[in-house]
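User: Sequence recovery, please. Input:
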C-alpha cells in the first residue's frame, strides 16, 4: 500500500485519540467540599471537612474567590436567579432550608433540579423566580428552569445569602467554605478554580 494511503488513516486515528483525550479531560471527576480552612501554604489549602477528614486542595493561579454574605428574603424578587437548597414535602413543594442569590453575571449557572447533599434527601434547584407571594408558612416562590418549575416555601428563619466578589485575603485559617467542584487529578490530588468563603464567620448554608 502506498505511504500516501496511510495518511488519511493516521489523521483519523490522531483525531480519535485527541477526541478521547478531550472527553477524558471534560469528564474529570469533581468533589464537593464543605468545611473550615485550617492552613494556607501558598496556593494549597488544608481543610477540615464537614465529615471530619483532612484534605488538601490546590487553588489554581487564576482562582476566583467569592464571599458568601447574608442578605434578606426581600432581595429575592421576580426575575432573580437563585439556588434553593430544599427538602421535598408530601404535596410536591420544596421546603427551603437555604436560599442563595446569584449575581447577574452568574445567571444560568448549573440550572435545573437535582439531588443535593446538604442533608439526607435534600435537593438543589437553580432557577429563575417567576412569582413570589407571602403565605401562611412563609414566602411562597415559584421558580422556573429549562425543564420545568418548582413551588418553594421559604420559612421565615431560612438563611438567605448571596455571592460577592472577594479576594485571597479572605481565604484564611478559620474561614468556612464550600467548593462546589474541586477537580480530582490523575494523581489523586484536588484542585479548585473557585472558592466560596463565608464572610464574617458565616458557614455557607447551601
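Assistant: Recovered sequence (206 residues):
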Amino acid at each position: 500500500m502506498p505511504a500516501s494511503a496511510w495518511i488519511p488513516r493516521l489523521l483519523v486515528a490522531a483525531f480519535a485519540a485527541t477526541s478521547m483525550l478531550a472527553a477524558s479531560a471534560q469528564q474529570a471527576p469533581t468533589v464537593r467540599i464543605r468545611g473550615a480552612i485550617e492552613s494556607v501554604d501558598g496556593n494549597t489549602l488544608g481543610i477540615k471537612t464537614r465529615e471530619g477528614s483532612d484534605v488538601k486542595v490546590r487553588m489554581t493561579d487564576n482562582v476566583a474567590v467569592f464571599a458568601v454574605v447574608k442578605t434578606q428574603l426581600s432581595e429575592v424578587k421576580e426575575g432573580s436567579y437563585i439556588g434553593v437548597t430544599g427538602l421535598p414535602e408530601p404535596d410536591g413543594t420544596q421546603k427551603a432550608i437555604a436560599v442563595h442569590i446569584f449575581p447577574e453575571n452568574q445567571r444560568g449557572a448549573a440550572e435545573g433540579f437535582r439531588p443535593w447533599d446538604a442533608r439526607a434527601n435534600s435537593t438543589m434547584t437553580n432557577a429563575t423566580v417567576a412569582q413570589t407571594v407571602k403565605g401562611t408558612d412563609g414566602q411562597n416562590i415559584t421558580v422556573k428552569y429549562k425543564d420545568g418549575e418548582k413551588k418553594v416555601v421559604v420559612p421565615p428563619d431560612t438563611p438567605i445569602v448571596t455571592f460577592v466578589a472577594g479576594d485571597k485575603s479572605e481565604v484564611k485559617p478559620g474561614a468556612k467554605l464550600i467548593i462546589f467542584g474541586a477537580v480530582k487529578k490523575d494523581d489523586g490530588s484536588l484542585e479548585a478554580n473557585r472558592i466560596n468563603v463565608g464572610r464574617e464567620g458565616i458557614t455557607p448554608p447551601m
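The first helix runs from residue 3 to 26.
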